[in-house]
């Protein structure tokens, strides 16, 4: 997919990886909508703020109407409650699944007809090494990201005949607020991840494995991790 003159919708564009996606897409010549819960938090030159909440289907549908010229959807928004499955707050566990799976799927369902009507394009879904490696302290996040992995694989096959490619990003810890509990030396620069991911979308690849840990995890999926 050619990113110059593309029309991109980036969810969660006001900080972290989403901010880097929005900035770099503008630099590459794309028109960009920043889809966030609080549009007033978007302060990026060249980015159009749009209200969007993964847990509120009405805002997703309205965002698809506003961004009616979209050709690229970057599903970046998400949450991390770090709730364990057996004794964590069930509301937190539901929020993880509502955000990473149901909310993202709702965004895909809303924007696919838009992208198709504009001649086709691409989806970029942000996943995690925790789609495959399930750590003790993040049970709800693990489950939600594993479900999202399956979703990307399923919709990829369904969307290919409709002229829409699906690139899934898998990455370990990035230097963002969500990973503030991780030591700096164990985190990757989100700007570097954004560049790799957008290059992957441009090339039409199915998966971007952004760091060595993630490449190791994918290679060892059949092992007992």
TrEMBL record:
Domain of life from the UniProt record: Bacteria
GO cellular component: membrane
Oxidoreductase as UniProt keyword: yes
Pfam families assigned: adh_short
GO MF annotations in UniProt: oxidoreductase activity
Alphabetically ordered keywords of this record: Oxidoreductase
Claim: Oxidoreductase is one of the keywords in the record: yes
NCBIfam families per record: PRK08264.1-5
Protein family according to the UniProt entry: Belongs to the short-chain dehydrogenases/reductases (SDR) family.
Protein name according to UniProt: Short-chain dehydrogenase
Organism: Kibdelosporangium aridum
């Amino acid at each position: 997919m050619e990113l110059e003159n593309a029309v991109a919708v980036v969810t969660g564009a006001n900080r972290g990886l989403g901010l880097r996606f929005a900035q770099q897409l503008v630099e590459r010549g794309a028109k960009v909508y920043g889809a966030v819960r609080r549009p007033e938090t978007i302060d990026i030159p060249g980015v159009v703020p749009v209200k969007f909440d993964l847990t509120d289907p009405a805002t997703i549908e309205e965002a698809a109407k506003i961004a009616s010229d979209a050709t690229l959807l970057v599903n970046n928004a998400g949450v991390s409650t770090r709730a364990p499955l057996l004794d964590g707050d069930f509301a937190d566990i539901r929020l993880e699944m509502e955000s990473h799976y149901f909310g993202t799927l709702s965004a895909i369902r809303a924007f696919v007809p838009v992208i198709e009507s504009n001649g086709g394009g691409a989806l970029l879904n942000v996943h995690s090494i925790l789609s495959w490696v399930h750590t003790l302290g993040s049970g709800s996040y693990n489950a939600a990201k594993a479900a999202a992995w399956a979703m990307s694989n399923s919709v990829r096959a369904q969307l290919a005949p409709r002229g829409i490619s699906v690139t899934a990003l898998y990455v370990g810890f990035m230097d963002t607020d969500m990973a503030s509990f991780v030591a700096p030396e164990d985190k990757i620069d989100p700007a570097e991840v954004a560049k790799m991911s957008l290059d992957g979308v441009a090339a039409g690849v199915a998966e971007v494995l952004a760091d060595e840990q993630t490449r190791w995890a994918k290679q060892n999926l059949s092992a007992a991790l």
